[in-house]
Design brief:
Length: about 475
């Protein structure tokens, strides 16, 4: 990418955050960390509860404390380190907290890599599932790390190790210390695919000074919608830093599954060609019960119907299997099926035939996008409970009708588009879920219409990833020029 050309673009973007060395910024940092220190006993108890009781944050715990792998530090040092790195080899740190953010980051990384092929990209995630998905997706990045706790001494340790030239946060990630300390070092900062839900906006106004401080340390904010952009400005972002780029998830490269591949997957799962299949993707606690109730209604009229449940967190498989048994269904796990297929002659590897089990738990990572291809109807979770909903674009890309619950505030834009284009349906409870499933399964004309229009909806709203990537390249040009 021509640096001179992009420098002009950078100036035009006007992404000038507040001076990180100003006394106001320092005072905000002192006040925030004083409050953080006062709350440290509570924070410590919370962390111990996550570690010891919930078993969360254990993976990569040393990295979360800022101790990055020696080989990563050596690799960055060997490629130029903090100051001698060539202009085309800047270190870019991108943070995507979990699966949803990794999904959004993936097309942006692809476009950014096309424009800046020599940049050194480090991708951080917070959750193990996000990390696993990022690794399995074979993203074109140079290293993966776990995101550090937002304490000054931890953040400084990571910044000293990475020496980033550009820090990119994805969607809703605003960590005040990281943004402030990065900007103090002269690191360019950006938020891409940015959004603020109705609920988050209402809550954020209660701590507006913290939001204003964090947002003032962003050079660029690529918002999903005009509403998101106005909310960022209202919370304290510099007006010139905010632009509307669209939703990068529309640019996701969804897998193309041919009819032959779908038929082969059906045979592998023991699903006959003519039976109806309900796929419940990214389910959360409290949703599997209503889904099983709706499936019971479906089986009354379609006795050979099948259900595939793909929990948002595969480690919940035992819990879900117990619930399925309580509802009177037998169940198979995808991991057991794959293990048997890999070692069919191993002692004790014999499993009942898949077609003997009405329900399958998809307890793997990275298969859901393909499994949607065998669905007649899809329900996307995180929406029957106040979670905010998950990505509905993968099933739409395969032409499948999508159902979701009333809580889609984290996916408001894409949900509104899908409802408007009549390729998705919103339901409020198990009864409505069952009624809508039964109606769609019987309506062959509706299924055919969605099969044609679903992929077209995605095509009509693409382009956000390239716009965000060009904004990031412009920031790098500005960083290099300064």
């Amino acid at each position: 990418m021509n640096r001179a050309a992009t420098q002009a673009s950078s100036s035009a973007s006007g992404a000038a955050a507040s001076d990180p060395f100003s006394w106001r910024q320092s005072l905000r940092g002192f006040a925030y960390n004083l409050l953080l220190a006062a709350l440290f006993p509570v924070v410590l108890v919370y962390l111990l509860w996550r570690l010891l009781i919930l078993g969360k944050s254990r993976a990569g715990f040393a990295q979360r404390l800022g101790f990055l792998p020696k080989e990563l530090r050596q690799r960055l040092a060997a490629s130029g380190g903090s100051s001698s790195l060539a202009a085309e080899e800047e270190v870019v740190w991108i943070h995507a907290v979990s699966v949803g953010e990794v999904t959004a980051a993936r097309p942006i990384i692809r476009e950014f890599r096309r424009l800046e092929p020599l940049a050194r990209i480090v991708l951080s995630t917070t959750t193990p599932t996000g990390r696993a998905m990022a690794e399995k997706a074979a993203l074109d990045v140079d290293a993966f790390i776990y995101f550090p706790f937002d304490f000054p001494f931890v953040v400084q340790r990571v910044l000293n190790a990475l020496h980033p030239h550009l820090l990119v946060m994805v969607e809703t990630e605003l960590w005040p210390n990281l943004l402030w300390l990065a900007r103090r070092r002269g690191v360019r900062t950006a938020l891409v695919n940015g959004r603020i839900s109705d609920r988050s906006f209402d809550r954020s106004r209660l701590v507006r000074p913290v939001y204003a401080w964090a947002l003032s340390n962003l050079d660029a904010i690529c918002a999903q919608t005009a509403t998101d952009a106005e909310r960022f400005r209202a919370l304290g972002a510099a007006p010139e830093a905010v632009t509307v780029a669209g939703n990068a998830k529309f640019d996701e490269e969804c897998p193309e599954v041919s009819p032959a591949q779908a038929a082969n997957l059906r045979r592998e799962l023991g699903i006959s060609e003519d039976c109806s299949v309900l796929v419940a993707g990214s389910t959360n606690p409290g949703e599997e019960g209503p889904i099983l109730d709706a499936f019971w209604r479906l089986r009354v009229k379609h006795v050979d119907a099948r259900l595939i449940i793909a929990p948002r967190h595969p480690e919940r498989a035992d819990e879900i299997a117990a619930l399925i048994h309580e509802h009177g269904w037998s169940v198979l796990r995808r991991t057991d099926m794959l293990q048997q297929a890999a070692a069919p002659e191993a002692p004790g590897s014999s499993l009942p035939e898949p077609h003997d089990h009405p329900v399958i738990i998809l307890d793997t990572i990275g298969e859901l996008a393909f499994v949607y291809a065998v669905a007649t109807v899809v329900f996307v979770g995180g929406s029957l409970i106040p979670k905010g909903g998950h990505n509905i674009l993968q099933p739409l890309a395969l032409g499948k009708p999508v159902l979701f619950g009333p809580h889609m505030h984290n996916q408001k834009d894409m949900a509104s588009i899908a409802l408007r284009e009549q390729v998705a349906w919103q339901v409020d409870n198990a009864e409505q879920l069952a009624e809508t499933i039964l109606r769609l399964v019987a309506d062959l004309a509706a299924l055919a219409r969605v099969a044609e229009q679903g992929p077209q909806v995605l095509a009509n709203y693409r382009g956000a990833s390239e716009r965000a990537a060009r904004r990031l390249v412009a920031l790098l040009a500005h960083e290099h020029a300064s």
